[in-house]
Design goal:
Shape: elongated
Distance between the termini: 44 Å
Strand order of the largest sheet: 1-5-6-7
Largest sheet: 4 strands, mixed
Number of helices: 4
């Protein structure tokens, strides 16, 4: 038995773990469905939509992440989504178009776009995976693309067991 101290090679490696779950934006997600506003579930009447928009209590979306969607197979004009968005915007944290999955993808796209990658310049990065929260796949793809120009290396997994993804060419 040796008297030498145990050295944590992972801790001393200089690897930075980036966990998208730690960045997970807290807040209720809501899909605003246009289907109940349709006439016979096939068409949208402008006057009816405008009356609804004027009368609806938009404050109920305060602090929420909202996506505007139509679950019916109907053709909805672009301006209708825009009209609803203009009513949601003063209240919601975030407004986009699509279903619940689209909403989550859009939230994480914005999160990755806002990430200050200069913090990771020349660093060895492990993007942690296999979490408990529903981080969409596009977040990992977009994060990889954003980090590549500045990192020394990019890996996926846990610091003790990684999958190498990218290594910057030696200058």
């Amino acid at each position: 038995m040796s008297d030498e101290p145990i050295i944590n090679k992972v801790a001393s490696s200089g690897i930075i773990t980036l966990d998208l779950e730690e960045m997970y934006p807290q807040g209720e997600r809501v899909v605003f469905d246009l289907k109940p506003l349709l006439w016979q579930e096939i068409a949208l009447k402008e006057d009816d939509l405008r009356a609804f928009v004027k009368a609806h209590d938009w404050s109920q979306y305060k602090g929420k992440f909202v996506s505007i969607h139509c679950s019916a197979d109907a053709i909805i004009p672009t301006w209708a989504y825009m009209l609803v968005a203009t009513s949601l915007q003063p209240h919601a944290v975030f407004v986009t178009q699509g279903d619940a999955n689209d909403l989550e993808r859009a939230i994480f796209t914005r999160l990755v776009q806002q990430l200050d990658i200069e913090l990771y310049r020349g660093a060895r990065i492990v993007v942690k995976g296999c979490g408990k929260l529903p981080v969409p796949l596009n977040a990992y793809v977009e994060l990889s693309a954003k980090l590549m120009p500045v990192v020394k290396s990019l890996m996926f997994g846990e610091p003790c067991s990684t999958v190498p993804l990218y290594k910057a060419p030696k200058a």
